[in-house]
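Sequence only, no structure available. Ideas?
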Amino acid sequence: MTDAAEVRNLTRQLLAAHPPATTDRTDFLKARFDAGLAWVHYPVGLGGLGAPRSLQAVVDAELAAAGAPDNDPRRIGIGLGMAAPTILRFGTDEQKQSLLRPLWVGEEVWCQMFSEPGAGSDLAALGTRAVRDADEWVVDGQKVWTSSAHVARWAILIARTDPDLPKHQGITYFVCDMTDPGVEVRPLRQITGEAEFNEVFLTGVRIPDSRRLGAVGEGWKVAQTTLMNERVSIGGSRIPREGGMIGPIARTWRERPELRTHDLHQRLLGLWVEAEVARLAGERLRQQLVAGQPGPEGSAMKLAFARLNQEISGLEVELRGEEGLLYDDWTMRRPELVDFTGREAGYRYLRSKGNSIEGGTSEVLLNIVAERVLGLPSEPRSDKDIAWKDLAR
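Reply:
I predicted one. Tokens follow.
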């Protein structure tokens, strides 16, 4: 299946058989998945057609014109952008069949349990243990900064299965059922007043070996697939011109001439150009994905995303003056998604501070770009060949 006309015809057949105006939303999404029009580059039977990724735009355009519902991608972004490509690459046939359809349809939300209180930027230092017990693994530990854990059914989880090996080895990758006994989710209130992040305590959680992704001890390799896709999904999402953070400040500039100054004009022009360059670079990155797995370029995009969001939101607060300091509601809430453009300037300013931490800190991403894009020598790592249990902590 490589022809745009064929894909367009399949999409129109879907719309004829399941008219969006009269079909239940979830039923329509299930029919779309079964027709191979969820993500066309995935294999047949797993929501795809085995077609080039570029043909997804044909499907999306036809469905948008017909007013068809989407799967609320912001709410299920971790599942779509991180869990799904990892399952596709490393999962068993049974795992793919059972997990991908409800993930894409949005029936089941996913979260990511990687970071720990003592293993954030140095993720490979993680200490959550998984001990084999016949056909199960018993997991004990703590994870932190876990977005959407309070609404998630499933989690992608990495845990240490062999402390006698160096830290990048002896790690195994699992799929954890968040409803299992021993999983406790606690909110982490942020500077915005909300708690979209959580900390998760795992106490004697029993995970069947059938929910392991990849080989025992190769969790770091599997996690790299997740992390590369995560950075692309954060920094390289498709947006229109003046989409994202630059949109609200551009609208304010046009609608509120009394706020303008020459200095603010020059700074806004510079950030507008940078935002447009980043948008176009994201388009190029997505085109490169057609040829294979995401590479380190996604880290550069995520770097640009974080810096631009913080600089644009800071300029927006400055442009609005006293209005920019207002904040509508400090009520403790546990939202299902982050809405940068649907809130006021004060929220954007505060929330963007986390962009340089979440999804890989900017400092770590700079190292990745230096070593894997520019080819600079890596920093000396004295702990590279030392067993994890012997590391100073």
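The mean pLDDT is 91.
Hope that gets you unstuck.
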